[in-house]
Sequence to fold (106 residues):
Amino acid sequence: MRKPRDIDAELRALSDKAKGLKAKRVLQLGELVAVTGADALDLETLAGALLSAVNGAKSADQKEAWRSEGAAFFQRRGRKGRSGVEAPNAGDGGGARSRGDRDPAR
Fold:
């Protein structure tokens, strides 16, 4: 006779996996902001630019132009980091900062 499935345990495992994937996405978005240099903008400016992009992308041509520009940016950046977001070149001093490595001037 087969052992009954523990549905609650499976649901917990799926929930944990979903939380992990969401956390990874947030981390990758933060790395993207840092790698593009957008972390130099104040929060209000960055939020306004993102909202403008989301609300202003009415045409497929505009979205394609942004996609092409983004693809060209990543091709110029060089090698990829382990997260899938392009890592800065080793000697340029750029890149995402860890939580404990924040700029005190901000």
